[in-house]
Write a structure and sequence with these properties.
The protein is an alpha/beta fold. The chain has ten helices and seven strands. It has a single domain, classed as Alpha/Beta hydrolase fold, catalytic domain (Rossmann fold). 45% of the residues lie in helices and 15% in strands. Strand 2, helix 1 and strand 3 form a beta-alpha-beta unit. Helix 2 packs across helix 3, helix 4 crosses helix 5 and helix 4 runs antiparallel to helix 7.
């Protein structure tokens, strides 16, 4: 295993946040302060992302390797029981870890993610992978950034994306992007997730909004929380609404324990 960059803030019950494809711990900067005021919050960067090592070859990147890295991380941090949130690709990692180690995951939040390959944007992803292999990631970033629109929040998002994409291993983008298109479904295993679970999704996440309904309808007792006006990253686009959804998750979790 490799040494992942990781950070901890706050005290109390541990809450681990797992970022998605092309992301990093920068994904949580708008919400980490309020979260850490109430619990011990742990963030980290996947291999090939952020400040974690870039390994340079596509064979070094798969979902199974990310799950193995995560398992080693929580062991290294001596987290016997913890709350877990996974976003997008990080949601796939969180789901699969929770299925393999249900005794470790006290509660689960799955955000803008899916249990099987999501339909939509397949051709764009394939084109992006080809462009990245041939020209690197920054030309692809510039194409995407040009279509983000305008406004103060968009500028902040664009600046953060530039940092994240400049840090990312091209090999990780190509290998994990391809796996997002064709990973193994765990849909039939979801009824085994019996820990308190909340599904969070942006109202306008056109690719993954249907998948949220599937998750909420398949995981026993799962609650669906749709963040109005948000797209794929509600914690950045509507941070106050996202924090309210996370607080509601823990309130329901505590009510279940007390009940």
């Amino acid at each position: 295993m490799i040494e992942l960059a990781r950070w901890q803030q706050g005290t109390g019950d541990p809450f681990v946040l797992v970022h998605g494809f092309t992301g990093s711990s920068l994904d949580w900067v708008d919400v980490i302060g309020p979260l850490a005021a109430r619990r011990r919050v742990i963030t980290f960067d996947h291999r090939g992302h952020g400040e974690s090592p870039n390994l340079g070859v596509e064979s070094a990147y798969s979902f199974e390797q990310l799950i193995g890295d995560f398992a080693a991380l929580v062991d290294d941090l001596e987290l016997d029981r913890f709350d877990l949130l996974g976003h997008s690709m990080g949601g796939i990692v969180a789901m699969r870890y929770a299925l393999s180690s249900p005794d470790r995951v006290r509660s689960l939040v799955l955000m803008d993610t899916a249990a099987e390959p999501a339909e939509g944007h397949r051709d764009l992803m394939r084109s992006g992978i080809e462009l990245a292999r041939n020209n690197g990631l920054m030309p692809l970033f510039e194409l995407i950034a040009a279509n983000l629109g305008s406004g103060e929040r968009v500028e902040v998002t664009r600046d953060r994306m530039r940092v994240k994409w400049s840090q990312m291993d091209v090999a990780a983008f190509c290998a994990l992007g391809a796996e997002l298109l064709d990973h193994e479904s765990v849909l039939d295993r979801l009824p085994a997730l019996t820990m308190p679970t909340t599904i969070i999704v942006g109202e306008h996440d056109t690719t993954l909004r249907p998948s949220a309904d599937v998750l909420a309808g398949t995981i026993p007792g799962a609650r669906l929380d749709v963040i109005r006006g948000a797209m794929h990253s509600p914690q950045e686009e509507r941070p106050d609404a996202w924090l309210a959804a996370v607080d509601a998750h823990f309130a329901r979790f505590q009510s279940r324990i007390l009940g």
